[in-house]
Amino acid sequence: MPDVTDAISPRGDGFAPLPPATKDPEKIRSYLSDESSAMSGSAERVYFPENAGQVSAVLRAAAREEKKVTVSAAGTSITGARVPLSGGWVLSIERIRRIVRDEGADVVPAGFVPVRHRDMSFYLNPETRQAIAPAGITLNEFNEALARYNLVYPPDPTEMTAMLGGTVATNASGARSFHYKPTRRWVRGLEVVLPTGEPAWMRRGERRARKGVLSIETAAGTIPVPLPRAYPVFTSKNAAGLYLAEGMDPVDLFIGSEGLLGVITAVQVGLVEIPRDVLTCVAFFGSIEGGLAFVDELRESAGATREAPLSLEYFDRRALSFLRDSFSEIPEKAAGAVLFEFEYDRAARHNPYPARTALEPWIALLEEHRAISSWNVTGRDVSRVREFRHALPEAVNTYVRARVGKLGTDMAVPARHFRTMVEAYEKADSCGVKTVFFGHIGDCHLHLNFLPENREELAVARTKYLELARLAVHLGGTISAEHGVGKKTIEDEEGHSIPYLEVMLGAEGLRAIHAFKKELDPHFTLNPGNMVPEGYC
Ligand SMILES: Cc1cc2nc3c(=O)[nH]c(=O)nc-3n(C[C@H](O)[C@H](O)[C@H](O)COP(=O)(O)OP(=O)(O)OC[C@H]3O[C@@H](n4cnc5c(N)ncnc54)[C@H](O)[C@@H]3O)c2cc1C
Measuring CA to CA, how many Å separate 423 from each of 131, 147, 426, 430, 471? Predict the structure, then answer.
């Protein structure tokens, strides 16, 4: 957290005074990029509000002074979403770390008790397993505090330094989303400050869009917003574009909205008990078909004949090649691996070998699908599998660092078309660029990475990337299932740079988002350039 020594003198606006800010270029620098490192912006100052009132003050001041505002959380996004490409001000949520009951007496219902952990505080109802937490805490911190109650917040987007508000704004998911589903499923309510500075508190189930109009309740009154006439509705995992649908809940509007429509300051979430004992299994297959058939069976039977695994991940043969030197567990003949985790009860009564018993049905299934071998671990040994999982992105990053970087996809398709997508991934390196793919096979969501050797190969990979994105859309899938689109662009077949989201929604879809945003943000103050570039419409 930066040391705000050069706070700009607050100018009240009749509601709340402006929070501290910094104008120091050195301190501002860390807010100008994100984990993508693909782009860099500029900002005149960074504000550090602590609550909704101060967020409101910043947004009202920005409107008066005709400044653009970009919201920043932890900056772990890999799409440039928090990069202030249009300049103006940055609003960092990192100091929104406390829920104060006085500020939202009606926001904290009966049954919730205050929890303090380090310098943060939130409200918890251990019985209903819900919490109301400030947007600026990291997932790591949140789970650390919840562990005392044997509870965990399920979304796990790998980067646990991400902040709660950032993960809601991107509808983050991750390795365990096969079991737990993306963030959307866990959000029960939100406190949001609209771009005009109006705070709004909404709880899931209280309102629904009707007759093509979504109404948002604020303290100052109801804001009716017309929904676009034609806009796609995604039933499978998706993090690209706004969620707009007849009958929708206003809470869903802000989840995955990449900060276009408001600043999230507090979130009411559902929690689960920490999984008891987890058995992790890496099954190696001699052919990709064996792995796919095994996963198909797990996917189809999940919830019916057996509990869905906590995670279901895939590593292709090229991924295994990257790992072979460090992991002797990988058999020579392995052409792919499926990693899955499931919960079991180590303290099961009258059973001296609970892990073995829990594993038996899975082993039978693996044999049926001709797995070569499986590497099964519990307890402390899980750390070795964790290394296996994390070693791959690291190995890939080390490989590309000496070259021209990588191009990674984030596409997902409906299960019935998954094999077509996998075939396309398998053949992607026929364009002459090295590839590797791995990821969330349970959700039909694999990340194909192009690893070009030079600029020429990078250009070839870009063309292939567009081809794959078009295929995913053609198959009824998404161009981004968990990372969002942020400020990503892509070259079309004619060599024109277009917003990445246009590949999925077309120019009409982007115009619909622009028109919808205008209803809530008439001066396009907040997060300009996300989803729809400035000047596009
Ligand atoms: C190595 C690595 C692995 C990753 N793996 C995954 C993965 O498996 N699954 C996954 O889903 N993601 C993954 N990510 C992406 C990333 O972690 C997520 O996008 C994360 O949810 C962003 O949170 P953040 O706090 O860093 O937000 P930021 O990056 O700071 O912001 C992200 C966007 O949200 C907006 N925003 C932030 N806070 C608010 C707010 N309070 N109100 C309104 N808008 C806001 C910002 O303006 C920006 O548009 C990965 C990233 C890395 C680097």
Answer: 43, 42, 5, 12, 11
